[in-house]
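Box S2. Input/output pair 1.
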Amino acid sequence: MIIMSFDEKYFSTHTYADITFAKYSMYWWSNRFYAMLARRYGRQGGRFLEVGSGMGHLTGQLEDTFQTYGMDLNHWAVKQSKAVVEKSSLQTASAQELPFADSSFNVVIIKHIVEHLPDPQKAIREIGRVTEPGGILILATPNLDSLLKPWKGEKWIGYQDPTHISLKRPAEWLEFIRSAGFSPFKIFSDGFWDVPYIPLIPKQIQKLFFGSLGGFQAMTGLVFLPMKWGESIIVVAGKT
């Protein structure tokens, strides 16, 4: 069994390595895109929560729109976040036991966290509990139904992090979301950015060919990529 330790070492060797503070990196564009979704579907001035807020960059972007809250299991990351956020309330807590009252938030984002959890269904139920009626859930996780996943085989991006202990098919994630009291109304993907997909062809050429649609979606905020056309499934759901 994997013993998860989301500490400074983890943040220096996975998604955040070398790009956390690089403007216009993939990490930067990703946070900008999710901030656009939160502003589009959320209520201005409402309460926003990021579950698994990491280094605080997404939560910090939304301080001008919402009353922002961030939480992460990693004490070190929460401490580092304080250099990024100005007004947000931050704390260390588990996604599976949210320290908030019922119906506390208008928008909750949980971005690439559920795949790390031993009981992701419990975490999604907790999000359902703390989301107000009419509120919004935005969830992202690796996409086992990605069309190009077979091309990558064991090198697929979702398999590269040993703490990905809860990889599931989109249908199962959607069932968890619905059972938590949400109704999904946008189900899409993020494009094919995990180049190379084809041997021998230079990565830069493949990035242009395979990644252009996902890049366009991220830059414009237009949501149009079908669920199977990318490495992640992204769900926007309303609390019923």
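Box S3. Input/output pair 2.
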Amino acid sequence: MTTTSSSASLLGRLLNGATTLSRVAIWVAGGLTLLSALYITADVICRKVFNFPLGGSDELSGYAFAISISWALSFATLERANIRIDAIYQLLPDRFAAFLDWLSLVVLAVFIVFLTRYAAQVAGMSWDNQSAANTLLGTPLWIPQLLWVLGFIWLCVVLALMLIRASLALVTGDIQTVRAICGIRTSKEEASEEAEAGKRIVQMERES
């Protein structure tokens, strides 16, 4: 029992650390998307007003979007923001529902591993062939593809931690922990999150 508790505690700390890093990653990804939007805006203004396009906005925004998505997936997974159909799920016994939660995490992990492997192969081929974008910028494709793949690799790490912790909780009968890691978000949880977001907005308005 002591070994199980210590393992659960260690995994909990690792998951907390992964959540912190994923939160940083999603802020960086959001910043990258914002910079992309600003660059597109500047390109449009320069083209319309000064008849001098900056160029490359469509290419760079595509890279930014792909990289941002891959790095944002880990935080979305930790926050259980993925969409799942719960029409029948709500009627199931707790233990069976927890098993389905764990199974859904396994299926997601397997899919992401295959996706990451394919993405790595694409980046590897671009490196081997020294492929460059067929654009004015001529960007070496392995650079944005590497950043894209690293986001998927980090997602694999996060999923591995979640799966190990959820498996330990499932074996020990800790149904609440299984649901907290990979279960469907309840309406109460969503309402609480919205309430906290509202409080932060009100506090920011008062401070300003």
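Caption for Box S3: The chain has a mean pLDDT of 85. The first helix runs from residue 2 to 49.
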